[in-house]
Design a protein that fits this description.
Strand order of the largest sheet: 1-7-6-5
Order of helices and strands: EEHEHEHEEHEEEHHEEEHEHEEHEHE
Radius of gyration: 19 Å
Number of strands: 17
Largest sheet: 4 strands, mixed
Bound molecules: 6-aminohexanamide
Shape: globular
Mean pLDDT: 95
Distance between the termini: 7 Å
Strand content: 15-25%
Helix content: 10-25%
Number of helices: 10
Length: 378
């Protein structure tokens, strides 16, 4: 059985690789939460199935489904996709799953962050989140990977890395008092170093307008490869996203990565702006928690929320006026991969997009530690 380690990845010389590095697979969760997904989650399930099918072109996909939804998920997904029964509170594998780290020998381990539903009881999106907080541990057990339990609240969508020691994040999310109010920037950087092996943190300011995650980086900006990032963009100065993206651009321009390089910054024109329609507010169960759904509210739409697969880029299709332009930008940035668009408005209505619902497992050689002398508990 994989071990719970009481050391840290940095101590053990493990580092989080870039998403563009080879994967052994990808994990997702089958959506069903009726207070987040409209119409019994049927439209969302179709979108998730299309994402899983596209990713499965280049790597093994595993979908976690509840006891109630197992048979439906199995029947809705191609045979090549593995379906495992697992309890969750919702379907955001990027945020509840482990962040994987790897060492020079190719051994893969996982970091299991504390999860508080994007803000806990002050600003979080639902309660309880106890099953979500167990997902990383369960995924690591299925994968046969040893686990580090990190002592801070963090979601996978709040970080991007270049695999060479640099991490990108936002102040809006990581410094939000609803995550780790006892930790300042310097203390967070130390923990990011300890648990992901990074040596340089690039702090952007705010995330995408109206992002209910408090500004996850994975909706704003990501690494295309070491030394190159892509940033969501608008030239419309009256759009509040303009100042946010402009500020991010300036910060990126004046940054150096962990290897001392200046970054090449690519702009990716945003969709829309897009807004929730009155019809789309119907069919979502009402709750007292933090996910009010109102007609005409702005959706946190961004093409940066794509998945980098082994042979594919799986990107959200969100706006017929902009989709082709975004796809062409991504084709130029990833000439060696096939860019596949998936109709993703139903995922966006739930508060995130393709990157948020996926979690890659790096390709490595999995070795579960049996030596208790390394501090391991099982
Ligand atoms: O975008 C994400 N990473 C998660 C969004 C959660 C939204 C819950 N309604």
């Amino acid at each position: 059985m994989p071990a719970l380690l009481n050391t840290t990845p940095a101590n053990d010389e493990f580092l989080m690789p870039g998403e563009f590095e080879p994967h052994s697979g990808c994990w997702m969760i089958w959506p069903e939460r009726p207070s987040n997904w409209r119409l019994g989650a049927k439209p969302a399930q179709a979108a998730f199935a299309a994402v899983a099918t596209a990713i499965a072109i280049g790597e093994r996909v595993t979908v976690a489904a509840s006891r109630e939804q197992y048979v439906n998920a199995r029947a809705s997904l191609p045979d090549a996709i593995r379906v495992v029964e697992m309890s969750t509170n919702d379907a955001w594998m990027r945020d509840v799953g482990p962040s994987f780290v790897i060492n020079r020998a190719g051994e893969v381990r996982g970091v299991d962050w504390l999860f508080n539903a994007w803000g806990g009881l002050s600003g979080g999106l639902y309660f309880p989140w106890d099953q979500d907080d167990l997902v990383a541990r369960k995924v690591l057990e299925v994968e046969g990977c040893d686990r580090y339990r990190a002592p801070l609240v963090l979601e996978g969508g709040a970080i991007h890395v270049d695999g060479e020691g640099t991490l990108l994040t936002t102040e809006e999310c990581l410094l939000n008092p609803n995550r780790n109010p006892h930790l300042d920037k310097g203390q967070l950087e130390i923990l990011l170093h300890e648990y992901l092996g990074v040596t340089s943190v690039i702090w952007l300011g705010k995330g995408v307008v109206e992002d209910e995650t408090n500004g996850h980086i994975d909706n704003l900006c990501c690494f295309v490869r070491p030394g190159e990032v892509v940033l969501t963009w608008t030239d419309n100065k009256r759009d509040p996203q303009y100042e946010i993206s402009r500020d991010a651009y300036e910060r990126l321009k004046s940054s150096r990565d962990a290897q001392g390089r200046k970054l090449k910054i690519h702009k990716l024109a945003q969709p829309g702006p897009l807004f929730r329609t009155a019809a789309e507010t119907q069919g979502v169960d009402r709750t007292d928690a933090g996910m009010p759904r109102q007609a005409r509210e702005r959706l946190a739409a961004s093409y940066v929320n794509f998945y980098i697969g082994n042979s594919t880029i799986v990107m959200p299709l969100l706006d017929p006026k902009q989709d082709r332009i975004a796809a062409n930008t991504l084709k130029r940035l990833f000439p060696e991969r096939r860019v596949i668009g998936v109709q993703a408005r139903e995922i966006l209505l739930g508060g995130g997009n393709i990157h948020c619902i996926t979690q890659q497992v790096p390709l490595g050689r999995v070795v579960a530690t049996r030596k208790r002398s390394r501090g391991g508990k099982t």
